[in-house]
Specification:
- By secondary structure, the chain is mostly helical.
- It is built from five helices and no strands.
- It has helices at 2-6, 21-41, 44-47, 50-72, 86-98.
- Helix 2 (21-41) packs antiparallel against helix 4 (50-72) and helix 4 (50-72) crosses helix 5 (86-98).
- It is elongated and about 45 Å long.
- 17% of the residues are buried.
- The mean pLDDT is 95.
C-alpha cells in the first residue's frame, strides 16, 4: 500500500474500467521493478540444465510477453484482461527451446 499512497492511488481507482494516471504510474513502477528482478533471475536458467532450464526459460519468456502487453497498453491493466494467445504461448516455449538469450523486456 505504500506504493499506492506514493502514487496517489485509492482503492476505488482499482475498481474502474480504466486506469487513472496514478494507477498507470504505479503499474509502470511495478512493471519496471518486476522486469529488473526477472532479468536478474534469468541467470538461474544458465545454472540449471535439461528440462528445468527449458521450463524456466519458457515461464520467463511468458512473463516477458505480459510485460510487453502492459507497456503497449500504457500500463493500464484495467482496460482489458491480459491473456497470452495460443501463438504467444507457443512463441514462449519455442523461444525457450531455441535460445538461451534473455528477453529484451528484462533490460
Amino acid at each position: 500500500t505504500e506504493d499506492l499512497q506514493r502514487f496517489g492511488v485509492e482503492i476505488d481507482d482499482l475498481r474502474r474500467d480504466g486506469a487513472t494516471p496514478g494507477v498507470r504510474a504505479v503499474v509502470e513502477h511495478w512493471t519496471g521493478i518486476s522486469a529488473t528482478w526477472f532479468g536478474e533471475g534469468w541467470e538461474l536458467t544458465r545454472l540449471v540444465h535439461g528440462r528445468l532450464a527449458l521450463e524456466l526459460r519458457a515461464i520467463l519468456r511468458g512473463v516477458a510477453l505480459v510485460i510487453g502487453h502492459l507497456r503497449r497498453l500504457d500500463h493500464d491493466p484495467l482496460a482489458t484482461h491480459i491473456r497470452l494467445t495460443r501463438s504467444e504461448k507457443l512463441r514462449a516455449v519455442g523461444g525457450a527451446l531455441l535460445s538461451s538469450k534473455m528477453p529484451a523486456e528484462f533490460g
